Amino acid sequence: MDTLELLLHPVRLRIVHAMSGGRTRTTSDLCAGLTDVPKTTVYRHVGLLAEAGVLEVVDEQRVHGAVERHYRLRREHAGIDAETAASMSLDEHRQGFAAAMAALHAEFNAYLDREGADPTADSVSYRQGTLWLTPDELAEMIDALRGVLASRTDNQPAPGRTPHLLSMILFPTAEPERPREPGPTSAG
Q1: Nearest partner of 74 among 103, 99, 49, judged by Cα
Q2: pLDDT tens profile 111-155
Q3: Which of 97, 116, 176, 184 sits 20 to 30 Å CA-CA off 50?
Q4: Sign of the dihedral through C-alpha 51, 55, 59, 63
Q5: What letter would DSSP give residue 53?
Q6: Can you state the angle between helices 10-19 and 39-51, rounded to 10 degrees?
Q7: How far apart are CA 27 and CA 32, in angstroms?
């Protein structure tokens, strides 16, 4: 299975999210966190991610006669690099966006279904807005956002820290305006 096919799936995206931050988890741990996904489905997708090298086994223990594996995410294999993204067809981008939205929707519903969910207290946000940007302004903004996010991506689980799912979606909503051709002038 190629990287695109592997990662552009809502359940596998949710497993990758659940494994982020250097956490080590068993498939049972993942099932406990993904209560809306059938256990057999979680086990199947963990197996695919492990087989592809996205998850690595860091420990094995015998539990009630079965082998329980502890997995860790291999971040270098858990994303789609710029070169692969540039080679994606429009249909693959559609598939990727649909998978990301399905995963986001499922994660948000799982959050709302938790006891004590409080979107206001938890600073939940799902705002949208339009920014008018030149290509240079867009590149500058993306670089600034990358810097802000990069300063937090290596945070590990610690007391007082909870994982937050951040989904940034950015695309033009209209075709860029083309310079107008000068029209004929009338003398008069």
Answers
A1: 49
A2: 999 899 999 999 999 889 999 999 999 999 999 999 999 999 888
A3: 97
A4: negative
A5: T
A6: 70
A7: 9
- Classify domain 3-114 by CATH number: 1.10.10.10
Residue 116 DSSP code: T
d(CA 42, CA 48): 10
Q: What are 173's two structure tokens?
A: 């909503």
- Contact by Cβ (8 Å): 72, 55: yes
Q: Which two tokens mark 125?
A: 């946000």
Determine contact, residues 144/133, Cβ cutoff 8 Å.
Answer: no
Q: Which residues have CB under 8 Å from 108's CB, separation 6+?
A: 126
pLDDT in tens, 5-50: 898 899 999 999 999 888 899 999 999 999 999 999 999 999 999 9
Quickly count: other Cβ atoms within 10 Å of residue 25's Cβ.
Answer: 20
Q: Is the separation of the CB atoms in 46 and 76 below 8 Å? A: no
Q: Which of 117, 122, 128, 118 is nearest to 167 (CA)?
A: 128
Coil vs helix vs strand at 66: strand
> How are strands ordered across the β-sheet holding 24-26?
24-26, 66-73, 55-63
